[in-house]
Specification:
The protein is about 10% helix and about 50% strand. Strands 1-2-3-4-5-6-7-8 form an eight-stranded antiparallel barrel. It starts with a helix and ends with a strand. It is globular and about 65 Å long. It is mainly beta. It has a single domain, classed as Uncharacterised protein PF14869 family, DUF4488 (Lipocalin, Beta Barrel), CATH 2.40.128. This is DNA topoisomerase IV. Keywords: Signal. It comes from Winogradskyella sediminis.
Length: about 130
């Protein structure tokens, strides 16, 4: 009986928890994203419109087109790729949101045959 009551209480408490995901607030704007390469922390700033994403990194701008799948998912494709790896589209998915930031994951839009799919996560903060 105690087990059943404990299980019921656990189900009730976990069913009340829901992740906030208001993605429409993050479709456009200016954002910052911090990441680590070779143990060194870098910050990148990017501006997103309905159709384009412009990354600013180390005084260089890099543009990508955006194709929205739904309010929380989109595909990024570089407009001027400089290598074969940059020609590949990236699938971005917003997992959760707060007032001024969102947690996301990204991976290649098309799975390469005979290679494991690599999914990365990050947090972007809305600056403007």
């Amino acid at each position: 009986m105690k087990f059943l009551l404990s299980l019921l209480l656990l189900i009730l408490l976990t069913s009340c928890y829901s992740i906030e995901r208001d993605c429409s607030d993050f479709k456009t704007g200016t954002f910052e994203f911090t990441y680590v390469i070779d143990g060194k922390e870098h910050t990148s700033r990017f501006k997103r419109t309905e159709d384009y994403n412009i990354d600013y990194h180390e005084e260089k701008a890099d543009s990508s087109s955006i194709r929205w799948i739904n309010d929380c998912e989109f595909i990024l494709k570089k407009l001027h790729p400089t290598s074969n790896s940059e020609k590949e589209a990236i699938h971005m998915k917003i997992l959760s949101t707060t007032d001024n930031s969102y947690t996301f994951e990204y991976k290649l839009a098309l799975k390469r045959p005979n290679r494991p799919s690599r999914v990365e996560k990050g947090v972007a903060t809305k600056v403007d």
